Amino acid sequence: MTANEAINLVQNALTMTMILAAPPLAVAMVVGLIISLFQAITQIQEMTLTFVPKIVAVMFTLMFLASWMVTKLVDYTNDLITSLPNIIH
User: Fold this and answer.
1) Confidence (pTM)
2) Tally of CB atoms within 10 A around 80
3) Average pLDDT, stretch 36-53?
4) If you average pLDDT over residues 60-80, what whole number do you get?
């Protein structure tokens, strides 16, 4: 395995990680922004008010996108296993 092949493998793995992590992180960020605006408007500073809605929103996002995420991960794994003979030489 050459250095370029190793770099390509790591780059593909990091890209797949970012693709799979982006939807839950984006939902958590949007919900957090909405909650912080609500807290600023109402002057409510309850700690559980920030965490519980984010957890619920991320949970629903993961439930909704689970099939897409598993499909992407299985496709990536199949491509990786298929390319192993070419990588090992």
Assistant:
1) 0.82
2) 14
3) 87
4) 96
